[in-house]
Design brief:
One of its GO terms (cellular component) is cytoplasm. This is Phosphoglycerate mutase. GO terms for molecular function: phosphatase activity. There is one protein chain. It contains seven helices and five strands; from the N terminus they run E-H-H-H-E-H-E-H-H-E-H-E. It is an alpha/beta fold. It has a single domain (2-174), classed as Phosphoglycerate mutase-like (Rossmann fold, 3-Layer(aba) Sandwich), CATH 3.40.50.1240. It has a five-stranded mixed sheet. Strand 2, helix 4 and strand 3 (77-79) form a beta-alpha-beta unit. It is globular. The N and C termini lie close together (5 Å).
């Protein structure tokens, strides 16, 4: 199965940060309106023309990106809970952006070095990869699918990436 993996568009966390929302509440943040024209242009690429289905993370930033991609295509669109973002806090409570960033850097350093993760406050790469692969296995009957999700899901599937995947960018995966 060929997968075109799309990282969601640029989210606008302004309100979430002002109100110190929990991680769960932040997941409802919409895309930044000023970035929408660039995203629409990226998603108009012909690589998407022969896709059979779109699978999206349930987070607003991914769903809104999937909707923009599908606006003129009319493909079946499935929302999959297990394509969600890496969890910086497994308990789902509020953690500061500084603490989230610290955990993310630690997670990526361990991933790059191939060192097992032991901090149980955040999700480990093996957990993230396993849940994403279970989702993708259910779509093997398709030749080409589009997955709209998050960089850390891409990285869990493809291994550590020295160069990130910017918001709205896409890559091919053969699964």
């Amino acid at each position: 199965m060929d997968i075109v993996f799309v990282r969601h568009g640029v989210p606008d966390f302004t309100l979430a940060d002002e109100r110190q929302m929990t991680q769960l509440e932040k997941d409802y943040a919409p895309l930044c309106r000023e970035h929408l024209p660039v995203l629409q242009e990226k998603l108009n690429h012909p690589v998407f023309n022969d896709a059979e289905v779109i699978i999206s993370s349930p987070y607003t930033r991914a769903l809104q990106t999937a909707e923009i991609l599908n606006r003129h295509r009319g493909l079946p669109l499935f929302v999959e809970h297990d394509l969600r973002e890496w969890r910086a806090d497994k308990e789902g409570g509020y953690i500061t952006l500084n603490e989230r960033d610290r955990r993310w850097l630690e997670y990526r350093e361990l991933l790059k070095a191939g060192i097992p993760m032991t901090d149980n406050r955040y999700e480990h790469v093996d957990e993230l990869k396993a849940r994403a692969e279970l989702v993708l296995d259910r779509y093997r009957q398709y030749r080409k699918v589009v997955v709209v999700s998050h960089f850390n899901v891409f990285e869990a599937l493809q291994g550590f990436q020295d160069v990130g995947l910017s918001c709205g960018e896409f890559r091919y995966i053969n699964f």
